[in-house]
Amino acid sequence: MKTIPLKQFAPFAVLLIVAIVALFIPLSPNYDIGKYSPADIAWVLTATALVFLMTPGLAFFYGGMVHRKNVLSTMIKSVVAAGVITVLWVTVGFSLAFGESVNGVIGNPSTFAFFQNVNSGESWAGAPTIPLTLFALFQLMFAIITPGLVVGAVAERIRFTSYIMFIVLFAIFIYSPLAHWTWHPDGFLFKMGVLDFAGGTVVHISAGMAALAGALVLKRRKVHQDHQEIPPANIPYVLIGTGLLWFGWFGFNAGSALGANSLAVSAFATTNIAAGAAGLSWMFFDVLRGKKPSVLGFCIGAVVGLVAITPGAGFVSIPSSIFIGAIAAVISNLVVVWKSKTSLDDTLDVFPCHGVGGIVGMLLTGVFATKTVNAAGVDGLFYGNPEFFITQLKGVVIVVAFSFVMSYLVFKLINLVQPIRVTSEEEELGLDASQHNEKYSQGTLVVASTGVEIDHELAH
């Protein structure tokens, strides 16, 4: 009988153990639906589904920009997080992020282990009109997409198994603590007065700094060393991905109001306006620099705008969102230009777009937040309160340092367990074939002058 190596057996064994343990978890009685708001439940359920849609949207967005021999490997890395993080969130992740606080640093892992007590009829402190189960599922979608954002920085050279290990360690040691610090009433950033409406720190800065750490640890691709221009595999994929991300982001930001109310409407509006302003800003700024207006430019700019408005979506006014989107796109664009002159190989510019975009958004929240929009918030620098801007700045510095250092250590730890990077031969072959034994094909092309169909791969 053939012996199965431990590294091949371990992932299935862990999942099997979790599945068996789950059978013996005590059940909680079902909650009384009458105590909640049906309208709020309906909206947050919808928002939860919208946020989930962002994960395949991200897969299209990233998959369209890489080399065609790495399309599938890039896309699956975004989508597989839906499986890994879901199981991890139910078992321990939600407890670490939102369980009983341990000194404002982390949640007690036993509070909601295997979703115990989640279905007990209690509500989250900030969401009394929806069941705790729904709040947990809404937060799950944020936890799923965050490690998926890092994919763009390490694309075309990271081993699939190493990436799976990264997802798990990132969720436990980086994402969950940050969620606890920022969104738990007893979290220390929350008590400091740091405001992050929908994930500028927890999602985007953490992913952006992890992207920077990953790019440094994995080092440069051969095509990057040789200064080869790699054409995007499928720009229409990028357009589709942008549309799905933009659409899903309404759930991401407006859903963070945790109810069907006027705050959700305001967050919905600021989200859309910032994205539109940023897409135009990126494209027009490219033209100002002597380039032609591009599809990729508008798409990337729109995503930067969505990133930048995320922390302030429920705290800033609609007019302010135009400025936030426009200025964030210019700053991220300039960082992309700077990065292109260095040896940093962040494949799809995750650090300039998500890391820097998140930082800009957090700081501009400190400038433009106003209690006129959200009475539970505070006035920012623009409204005569410089102290709040300083608070946001301190929060940004803490999250940037923590996210980068911890992510760097996680990548280094994985590299000790097994090589985190594929071999040069596997990189040359492409990760679709070397990691998954699959091949991306766009089908056939028709030559306009002859009407003859040819294989798309041969066309290249």
Textual characterization of the structure:
The chain is mainly α and 460 residues long. The chain has one domain (30-446): Ammonium transporter fold (Orthogonal Bundle). Helices cover 65% and strands 2% of the residues. It has 18 helices and 4 strands. It has helices at 6-22, 38-63, 71-79, 81-98, 132-154, 160-183, 188-192, 200-218, 222-225, 235-254, 262-288, 295-309, 318-340, 350-368, 386-417, 424-429, 431-436, 456-459, and strands at residues 101-102, 106-107, 444-446, 453-455. It has a two-stranded antiparallel ribbon. A two-stranded antiparallel ribbon has the order 3-4. A hairpin with a 6-residue loop joins strand 3 (444-446) and strand 4. Helix 3 (71-79) runs antiparallel to helix 5. The N and C termini lie far apart (45 Å). The model is unreliable at 443-460 (pLDDT under 50).
